[in-house]
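lol so apparently i was supposed to do this last week
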Amino acid sequence: MAVLDVNRIQKKYQAENGEITALKYIDFSVEKGEFISIVGPSGCGKSTLLSIIAGLMKPTSGEIVVNGEKIEGISNRIGYMLQKDNLLEWRTIYNNVVLGIEIQNNLTSENKQRVNQLLKTYELYDFKEKYPSQLSGGMRQRVALIRTLAINPDILLLDEAFSALDYQTRLTVTNDIYQILKQERVTTLMVTHDIPEGISMADRVVILSYRPAVIKDIIPIEFGLENRTPLNCRKTPKFSEYFDCIWKELS
Amino acid sequence: MDNPQISIERIKYLKRIKRQKEKILAWQIGILVCFLLLWEILAQAGIIDSFVLSQPSRIWKTCLNMAQNDLQKHIGITVYETLAGFILGVILGTALAFVLWWSSTISKISEPYLVVLNSLPKIALGPVIIIIVGAGTQAIIFMALAISLIVTVLEMLNGFQNTDKEYIKMAQTFDATKFQIFRKIVFPYNIATLFNSLKINIGLSLVGVIAGEFLVSKAGLGYLIVYGGQVFQLDLVMTSVIILAIVAALMYEAVALLQRVVMKKYGH
Ligand SMILES: Nc1ncnc2c1ncn2[C@@H]1O[C@H](COP(=O)(O)OP(=O)(O)OP(=O)(O)O)[C@@H](O)[C@H]1O
Ligand SMILES: [Mg+2]
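anyway here it is w/ magnesium ion bound
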């Protein structure tokens, strides 16, 4: 059974000066542990789609089903990481990371232990008592990811979460994050502008059309590598084939 | 931080900064001393009328004289009234701003009223206030409150409403309640706004208190000023004004000090 069903979603924005149809018809489902990349032209409705899946926004029609249950409002089975890291400058790294579980009144010793473990895995444990302004961009992004993972979500939504990073950092951060997500079997949907990044991490790439968005194509990505990582799959010949194929569909 | 051994450039830089600071302080003190000296000399020489404008030596004498009497009492009363009006204004103002932040409908409905109330000179309400709450300390505190309240509400509301939307959205992804969003995001985000408003308010409360004391005329520095004027003791007026200036500066500094202490904990 699919972990996530996006069923016939349509979204119209209402404003005083008119109506904008952002999403026309979006329908797909995602299996447990799968990594889905979503690409599409700017302004086509990618962020809208993630916000609807996260429950921050109601679709005009259609429904989101998680583990067979229709979701109403925000589900704590879903973690949503926004484009900006949004670390609270007045909180220490540790207090930033526990914000989510604190809000959900879940500050149990078990969860605290989990958070400490995550901080260690991401090499941030020594910075626990520091403030966000004392961290580099890549570190901040990882802190934001841990904050999202701390609530132990089944589904992770990433909205251009790495676009603020420089290319070098971006490659290493996505590589690290990919391995953690696969290890924890977190189902992930990632919106990105960077086609190679999308291919390098994805099991499937969803291509959206211009606004009002429909799904143009869904491309399964398979490299046949034994120990696939976002870095090593970039070197395979298949990688550029996928790139050409997606590039054509987008333009 | 990276380099525990301070470099020569850094020592030079720190020295330069320090010298610059000392220079500014010296100028500031110098100007004050020159001003006082000039005032004294011109008064001694009879170029300015020391009966109207007083002179530093007479002010000093009056000051010593008053200290024998009940100067402390008057200062105490003014400070007490100002602090009471100030604290009430800050608490009520922040609470009202919270309500208006919570409900955009209430906020929109009250907008024209707030604008009018804000531009209305609250001192004009003095006589009404005295009739309603009685000619005493309450009326004066009320006056201080009236002057500082609306400004606080507007300032804090503006801060609350301009909290980074992305922060709020982030908290919403964790299903935060509106109250949690306020407590964990909006309020700490606006600590700096709060202190700016505190700094403005301490001055406004003092204005309210002095205006109130003018009207009620029972005690306090405002009363001394009015009284001095009525009996043509302009030394008393000048002395009170100068003490008032010192009191105002000290209260402002106290708020600034509090800000530094809190910002150390909350800042970054
Ligand atoms: N709150 C809103 N009210 C009205 N229209 C909106 C709102 N948010 C988004 N839109 C419109 O919906 C469309 C899709 O927006 P969305 O932010 O989902 O695009 P996107 O694919 O994420 O774009 P980008 O790649 O630039 O991030 C845009 O045309 C935008 O103008
Ligand atoms: Mg977007």
